[in-house]
Design brief:
The protein has 262 residues and is of the alpha+beta class. It contains eight helices and twelve strands.
Amino acid sequence: MRQSWSVNNLTDFAVRSIQRAQADDSPFYHLRFDRVFPDDFYAAMLEAMPVGDGGYRALSGKAKVRNVTPEGKPTRTKIDLFPEYIRHLPPKKREVWDLAGRILRSKELGKAFVERLAPGLKRRFGADFAKVRMYPVPILTRDTAGYFITAHSDTLWKGITVQFYLPPDNATQQIGTIFHEALPNGKKPKNAQMLFSPNSGYAFAVADNTWHSVGLVGPEVKTRDSILLTYFVDAGPWRFLRNRGRRLQNVLLNELRNLKRN
């Protein structure tokens, strides 16, 4: 690894990117950012993308049922960026994603998001929003043709939703996330759309008004790669145990899947 690719250096770079992000309060308070990672590290992430199934697993629950091809293959798969999930990747790829996971789980990055998303967090949690503990879970996701998700506001188990886009170029900007306005009559028209551009992304504090969706990914798209960084509310013993229990459960399932592949 290059000397400039230390966890501290890369975290500092990402934090500065979040600090200078563009803020917008329509249709709800959110951030838009670009050049989240240094150019050379972003290029390394693209080169280190897992091939084939590469350890990816399908979504669970309702999303698993909805996002499948006629042949039964999932249209969204994911790899949790924790050491225990990526340990089966080839060494060079594992090194890159281990670094990325450490950056995304860092306290410094979490603090930057809380500071920049203060208006949205205060609306949900009140004046003491900064004291609400959050548990970061970064996931490398891969969407393929046929993927879509209808307008939803995210479960309130989540405190902050972040997505970093990982395309190689600007050829498929039209598949970025759509933000919706919630009208008094219950309708939720499109208000804005993020551009699916290299090294860019968005973030918002999850609330009852944060409606967003993804339109149908067409056959012209080879893969829609991104990192979903979710900060789960970690306040209280039940949430604390739930967050870590889900991680342990997924580790066991991941090891079983790896045994079956081998």
